[in-house]
Design brief:
disordered N terminus; homodimer; HIT family, subunit A; 6 helices; 24% helix
Amino acid sequence: MRSRVPFFVRRPRAPRRYNANTPLGKPPLPELRKDPITGSWVIIATDRSRRPSDFSRESVVIKGGRFCPFCPGNELKTPPEVLAYRNGSAPNQPGWNVRVIPNKFPALRVEGTLTREGEGMYDKMNGVGAHEVVIESPDHSLTFGELPEKQIESILWAFRDRSLDLKRDTRLKYILFFKNHGEAAGASLEHSHSQLIALPVVPRQVQEEIDGSRRYFDFKERCVYCDMERQDSGAARRVVIETDHFIAVCPYAPRFPFETWILPRRHVSHFETAEPALLENLAWVMRTLIRKLDRTLENPPYNWILHTAPVHEPYMPHYHWHIEVIPKLTKVAGFEWGSGFYLNPTPPEEAAKFLRDAGLI
Amino acid sequence: MRSRVPFFVRRPRAPRRYNANTPLGKPPLPELRKDPITGSWVIIATDRSRRPSDFSRESVVIKGGRFCPFCPGNELKTPPEVLAYRNGSAPNQPGWNVRVIPNKFPALRVEGTLTREGEGMYDKMNGVGAHEVVIESPDHSLTFGELPEKQIESILWAFRDRSLDLKRDTRLKYILFFKNHGEAAGASLEHSHSQLIALPVVPRQVQEEIDGSRRYFDFKERCVYCDMERQDSGAARRVVIETDHFIAVCPYAPRFPFETWILPRRHVSHFETAEPALLENLAWVMRTLIRKLDRTLENPPYNWILHTAPVHEPYMPHYHWHIEVIPKLTKVAGFEWGSGFYLNPTPPEEAAKFLRDAGLI
């Protein structure tokens, strides 16, 4: 399909792997860059990428061989499913394509009334919410990047369906979809899966994006993400993939090496309003991006997080849903947690070039 | 010294180690708790601590045997020192107690004028700042927790001296002191050291603490940290160590298991104004806390970060310097980065009890 092929990816090339010895050209001086949404500053410190201990990542390899509660035939070993796309088979039996179940070790529970209370000067509420697992394929042996395009489309439909269902619960303000791929990125089971957490509060990072993008909107009368899309798509320096519907870019001030965002090109604040053509194209873009990361970085562990507007908020002209993909390459995440200040050894322009050069796989 | 002994630690007990099988009593239902400073919500989800993969940490062990640029005799293998406490020996020679050097792979450089500029819609500045390493002891074989109390006091003096020196550079707004202990927490060399990064901007987490504590102050006309100190010191449920000058507490809404903060009991916004008696007592508290963590969690990797007011700001009635200590116990740090939303499997009341029970070591 012509429209899906990014204009600047001319032909697949031999894979070019990224490691500490890959020359990056003359390293520019360290630079501080500001995230235009949250206002955080990031150090882009290319000198540090020379250290041999950097990027000593663990490739994710499916080992198999152990009992897996997510495999077909073991449906009764998990909590009963809340959604499954099936070929006419009975619930909690084999014959599904994508299966969504409550997390066996839930961080939050659906039961009970949401109560807020004080504890002296402190504030708490009971842990009302939902914590579900999206089993992304019946096939244990495939990683997310190896799934067929149609399969990824089904996963995206499952996200949409679960969003629309959970949205009916007015106690829940936010639905967070995310994937931990590989043990180093927090996955405790290797069978490909993602998770959703439905929360009675809006996560802080999302709230800051909403507040920051509102400030930008108040000042410019434009959406900051739309501006990013316009500025970056022209220059192509940070663009990885571009289609009619989406752009995948390494953001100007990334916190992590090879951090990449997927943005819909047309302004939409809520993911769950995405129409079928958009989800179809998104499946292609996600698959292509993950395969590029797998090739360039040798199957790295990674996380991705779907950032979308709070479910009960009306359409927001300033907020723009998107997906943030973060390969886990550096062990250095120590003081960053505590300071909110990030040191990134790889300029996004270099990362984007490596990912573009990986070709369409 | 009587005044240093927390009133509720009656006598040293046999070490009680914390692992996934340690019974925590009946797990309470998951609870959402709000950090009173930043307003972030955290899930305290005790159910999840049952998972066997949790807390499969790597104990930090000093291996030695390799060439170490921080060891005495190798002074010329590092950039020339900017500070050293010596017994009359010449600079960059053996005979020091604590030695501060520029980082060989600096994230920021001291040279040049600070220039801010735009890049289309984006903002950047050149990476002016300082990045230094504090070599905490000439002895390669000792971890921070094994250092004598006087040695830790010298390290704190080095922090203070470097702060006062760097403060003279008006380009620098913030001085961040932190320690990465163990490879899993981001340390690339095992010889005990901490780092400072002097920045032309205030790190986001600190700025949010300053803003949040100002909101609290505007509303209550009291410092939120002083309120924490008052509320928690009475109840003792989250207190780990209490002396005349400091309190070490597991905060009400910790992001990580066994996260512990050390707060001066008297309100002070800037660390570098601490008087000698305070630093002396702080050395004892830090050493005791780290030794308790080492015993309870089997020498875990950890980070600590000194949070203090921006150097050029005048005294702040709402902000209170403190140290945040975060053992690195869980691999799950995936979606947390992206959402700013934390799942913590260990209630701080339980963590504090384990640390209190470790005794005074």
